[in-house]
Amino acid sequence: MADITVAIDVEVPCRVAYDQWSRFEEWPDFMPDLKGLERPNDVHLRWIITVDGRPVPFDDVITQQVPGDRIAWRTADGDTGHTGLVTFRPTGESSCRITFQLTTFPEGAAEQFGDQPGVEKGRAVRILRNFKKHIESTWRPPV
Fold first, then answer.
1. pLDDT per residue over 82-132, tens digit each?
2. What CA–CA distances, in Å, run from 64 to 45, 78, 79, 85, 101?
3. Start and end of every Coenzyme Q-binding protein COQ10 START domain (predicted)?
4. What is the C-alpha end-to-end distance of the chain, expressed in Å?
5. In three state form, how does the secondary structure of the chain look?
């Protein structure tokens, strides 16, 4: 099991950051390992990411969604995989701290190797940095 927590400050209001984060269909814009994403309904997500060049599909269930504040999820099977939480906290009028927490429960030897805290933390940091770059370059304050 690995517990990872990473945070980043973005120069957009929290509601803007939350709204963009919750547009899962746009995640390929800032998550290069994401090769496919489907949202069959409001609480289920079907992901295909690449790990060491091979596709890895998995399903998530959104367990909590508070607009402008947080999104929590877990893998659909519940026994292996992961649970996660992302929160959005204002740091100013037009800035926000995004905190990403992930707990992983690897299944086999390959997953355990890929699940080492440094590997998963590196992925989480890359996702947040890419998200920051994406949101700050696309958002324009109202005039």
1. 899 999 999 999 999 999 999 987 665 444 444 555 778 888 899 999 999
2. 13, 15, 19, 9, 14
3. 10-116
4. 47
5. CEEEEEEEEECCCHHHHHHHHCCHHHHHHCCCCEEEEECCCCCEEEEEEEECCEEEEEEEEEEEEECCCEEEEEECCCCCEEEEEEEEEEEECCEEEEEEEEEEECCCHHHHHHCCHHHHHHHHHHHHHHHHHHHHHHCCCCC
pLDDT in tens, 33-88: 888 898 999 999 998 988 788 888 889 999 999 999 999 999 987 656 889 999 99
pTM metric for this prediction: 0.87
Q: Which domains does the chain have, with CATH numbers?
A: 2-24+60-138 (3.30.530.20)
Residue with token string 């919750």 = 22
Q: Between the CA atoms of 36, 111, 70 and 68, what dihedral angle is there, to the nearest 10 degrees?
A: -30
